[in-house]
Amino acid sequence: MLNLGITLGDPAGVGPEILVKSFPFLEKLRANFVIFGDLALIKGLAKSYQLKLPSNLNIINLSKIKIIPGQPTEESHLAAVKYIETAIEKSLKGEIRGLVTLPLSKESFKVSGLPYRGHTEFLAEKLRAKSFCMSFYGKRLKVSLATTHLPLKKVSEALNPERILEIAKLSYDFLKKIKRSHEYIKIALCGINPHAGEGGLLGGEEKEILVPVVSRAKEEGIPLYGPYPADSLFYWALKGSFDYIIAIYHDQGLVPFKMLHFKDGVNVTLGLPVVRTSPVHGTAYDIAGKGIADPTSFQASVNLALRLIKKW
Question: What GO terms are given for molecular function (predicted)?
Answer without folding.
Answer: metal ion binding; NAD binding; oxidoreductase activity
